[in-house]
């Protein structure tokens, strides 16, 4: 079922002579690819429109590991200088997104390690207090040590779950942004 669905999705795209899928993007002119708020910025440094970025990301997500090219269609084909700038700006923008994702992954990893260290310290503190109070049998102290024990395991679980569960989506996004930044860009 999943293979049939994937084939239906991939069949929506045209292919190049060398069998790569074509992500076809139509716009009236090059300026339509960029946000309006940075009109005086060179194209290499301009921010791509969010709709364009989302379209490219969603398209690459749905085609999976298929090889692809990005093809821009304009009312009039831009000159070599302008096409070179567009290629560079698309490349730079997706490398920028990759860098943001790498930073988020590093932040998440740091948080996981901090939570893990806190959990280990609290767990050792709980064990240490438990060993010290066995002779006294104070109920309040047992409640406190059990609370510390629970807090330690919650911290450890959060550290491990954050790392194991949240790590994979970040790695997939990083790989996808890398693929998009290296994609061949055509103009028609």
Class computed from helices, strands and strand pairing: alpha/beta
* Order of strands across the main sheet: 1-2-3-4
Average pLDDT, rounded to a whole number, is 88
H/I helix tally: 4
Task: Give the tally of β-strands.
Answer: 4
What overall geometry do the principal axes of the alpha carbons give? Answer: elongated
Largest sheet, in brief, is:
4 strands, mixed
Strand content: 5-15%
What level of helicity do the residues show? 55-70%
- Domains counted in the coordinates: how many? 1
Query: Helices and strands, in N-to-C order?
Result: HEEHEHHE
Q: What is the straight-line distance between the termini?
A: 36 Å
What low-confidence regions span 5 or more consecutive residues with pLDDT below 50? none
What's the gyration radius in Å? 26 Å
Describe the structure.
This protein has 188 residues and is α/β, with parallel strands linked by helices. It has one domain (2-187). The chain is built from four helices and four strands. A hairpin with a 5-residue loop joins strand 1 (14-15) and strand 2 (21-26). Helix 3 runs antiparallel to helix 4. It starts with a helix and ends with a strand. The model has no long low-confidence stretch (mean pLDDT 88).
Quickly describe the structure.
This protein is α/β, with parallel strands linked by helices and 188 residues long.
Essential attributes:
188 residues; alpha/beta; four-stranded mixed sheet; 4 helices
Topology:
Blueprint: H1 2-11, E1 14-15, E2 21-26, H2 50-63, E3 68-73, H3 80-133, H4 139-181, E4 184-187
């Amino acid at each position: 079922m999943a293979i049939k669905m994937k084939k239906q999705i991939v069949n929506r795209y045209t292919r190049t002579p060398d069998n790569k899928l074509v992500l076809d993007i139509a716009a009236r002119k090059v300026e339509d690819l960029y946000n309006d708020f940075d009109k005086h910025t060179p194209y290499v440094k301009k921010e791509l429109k969010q709709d364009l970025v989302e379209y490219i990301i969603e398209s690459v997500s749905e085609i999976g590991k298929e090889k692809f090219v990005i093809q821009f269609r304009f009312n009039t084909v831009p000159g070599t200088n302008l096409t070179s700038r567009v290629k560079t700006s698309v490349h730079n923008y997706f490398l920028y997104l990759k860098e943001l994702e790498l930073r988020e992954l590093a932040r998440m990893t740091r948080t996981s390690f901090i939570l893990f260290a806190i959990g280990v310290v609290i767990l050792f503190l709980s064990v240490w207090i438990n060993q010290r109070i066995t002779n006294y049998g104070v109920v309040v102290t047992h409640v406190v040590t059990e609370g510390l024990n629970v807090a330690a395991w919650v911290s450890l679980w959060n550290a491990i779950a954050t790392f194991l569960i949240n790590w994979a989506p970040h790695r997939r996004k990083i790989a996808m942004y890398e693929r998009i930044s290296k994609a061949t860009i055509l103009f028609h």
